[in-house]
């Protein structure tokens, strides 16, 4: 078919669509059919193409979520004097909440939070502490991401958007706290969580259980700690329990010399 003929056919197709859309005689059955397709969230475009909409009619009818409050900055104080070497409650709670249980002893185990034993070489003093994404005010992982998958919310929470992560792992190299994991294995269906999407070939990390924070809860790790060693709150609110505690005692941040302004603080470091 010539280019001129193709253009005539395309123009005729647009005219037919316009007439069909503006035709007052469209019967109710056809209208109902189209409503059902829209509600299902799937529209066939022909030629083997299918459009997947963002959701059905009920989802589209919902009001947009309240915007994040840029005046807040979420953070956490971890009291290492209450954190025992053998306790894994925070790790287990994170696994359960976010679905990152891998095969036992797998070298590819995803870790949003891990327990680390550290030692002061000068004195021999040893301690155990949980380490996760430090939710820096100046996150190097966000700076190096070529697609914007590593991002920072208005309230300071650092996250990974799996849908645009290309698995380059630049963020993993940039993170001084080794707080990010690469998903090497398929995530079993029973382990998948809607609020914590993970996929093979992508990077993932702690997001402070943002889905819980957004509904007024605290992170799963802090809730599960039997000793109350993890105090979560708003660093920008002088009246929060976290801010009050930070004014009372000296606290420390991992590699504070890097100037990333960590949102995670510890009562002491070796």
Strand content: 15-25%
Number of strands: 11
What is the CATH topology assignment of the largest domain? Alpha-Beta Plaits
Overall, the morphology is globular
Largest sheet, order of strands side by side? Answer: 10-3-11
SSE series: HHEEHEHEEHEEHEEHHEHE
Helix/strand structural class: alpha+beta
For the sheet with most strands, the description reads: 3 strands, mixed
In which range does the helix fraction lie?
Answer: 25-40%
The structural domain count equals: 2
The low-confidence runs, each spanning 5 or more residues with pLDDT under 50, are 12-27, 33-64
Number of helices: 9
- What is the CATH class name of the largest domain? Alpha Beta
Q: What is the CATH architecture assignment of the largest domain?
A: 2-Layer Sandwich
The value of Rg in angstroms is 25 Å
Report the span from N to C terminus: 77 Å
* Average predicted local confidence, pLDDT: 79
Description:
Strand 6 and strand 7 (158-160) form a beta hairpin. This protein has 2 domains: 3-61, no CATH class; 74-266, Alpha-Beta Plaits (2-Layer Sandwich). The strands form 5 sheets. A 3-stranded mixed β-sheet has the order 10-3-11. The protein has 270 residues and is an alpha+beta fold. The chain has helices at 3-22, 28-40, 57-61, 89-98, 140-144, 170-174, 210-213, 220-224, 241-248; strands at residues 42-46, 49-52, 74-78, 113-119, 126-132, 150-152, 158-160, 180-182, 203-205, 230-234, 264-266. 28% of the residues lie in helices and 18% in strands. The longest helix is centred in the N-terminal third of the chain and has 20 residues, at 3-22.
């Amino acid at each position: 078919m010539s280019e001129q003929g193709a253009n005539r056919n395309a123009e005729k197709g647009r005219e037919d669509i316009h007439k069909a859309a503006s035709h007052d005689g469209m019967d109710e059955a056809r209208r109902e059919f189209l409503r059902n397709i829209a509600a299902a969230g799937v529209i066939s475009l022909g030629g083997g193409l299918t459009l997947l909409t963002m959701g059905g009619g009920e989802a589209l009818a919902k009001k947009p979520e309240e915007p994040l409050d840029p005046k807040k900055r979420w953070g956490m104080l971890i009291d290492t004097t209450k954190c025992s070497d053998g306790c894994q409650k925070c790790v287990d709670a994170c696994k359960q909440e976010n679905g990152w249980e891998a095969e036992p002893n797998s070298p590819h185990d995803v870790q949003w939070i891990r327990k680390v034993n550290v030692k002061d070489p000068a004195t021999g003093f040893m301690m155990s502490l949980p380490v996760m994404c430090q939710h820096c005010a100046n996150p190097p992982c966000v700076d190096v991401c070529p697609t914007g998958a590593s991002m920072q919310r208005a309230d300071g929470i650092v996250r990974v958007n799996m849908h645009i992560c290309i698995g380059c792992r630049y963020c993993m190299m940039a993170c001084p706290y080794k707080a990010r994991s690469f998903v090497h294995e398929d995530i079993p269906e029973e382990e998948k969580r809607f609020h914590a999407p993970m996929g093979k070939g992508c990077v993932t990390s702690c997001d402070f259980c943002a889905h819980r924070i957004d509904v007024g809860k605290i992170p799963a790790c802090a809730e599960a700690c039997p000793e109350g060693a993890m105090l979560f709150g708003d660093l920008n609110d002088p009246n929060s329990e976290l801010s009050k505690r930070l004014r009372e005692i000296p606290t420390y941040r991992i590699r504070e010399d890097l100037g990333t302004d960590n949102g995670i603080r510890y009562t002491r470091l070796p």
